[in-house]
Design brief:
The chain has about 140 residues and is α+β, with helices and mostly antiparallel strands. It has four helices and six strands; from the N terminus they run E-H-H-H-H-E-E-E-E-E. About 25% of the residues lie in helices and about 35% in strands. It starts with 11 loop residues before the first strand and ends with a strand. It holds the Pfam family MaoC_dehydratas.
Length: about 140
Amino acid sequence: MIRAAEVTAGDVLPPLSLRITRADLVRYAGASLDFNPIHWNERFAQEVGLPGVIAHGMLTMGMAVRVVTAWTGDPGAVLEYGVRFGRPVPVPDNAEGALVEVSAKVAKVLDDGTFKIAITAAFEGKSVLGGATARVRLP
């Protein structure tokens, strides 16, 4: 577990490579009750102008914060987390799914002893979450 005394602005967190599969979309839809057909019906998704079935934005958001929780070793260390949804993550109908690359760095040490973490999530080299930040408290 990382300690607050060991952290400075500019520190880079270990990156994560995350896969999102169609099976993940089914599980997330069941848990969230978000059964919008853009998340499971290829034809419908394309008819509304999407490249195909896309991941739920909140699923992508939830998976991306793992870069922070893996670093802290404690999901409870995340006090705040917010993002803007930038681009959809198309999820192909195969075993590999979509690969989302997540990186993060300590953007700022705040006056209250917490840390602002800037998070980047990209699919095929393009950002999918904008302004993603988390505020964490470390021991």
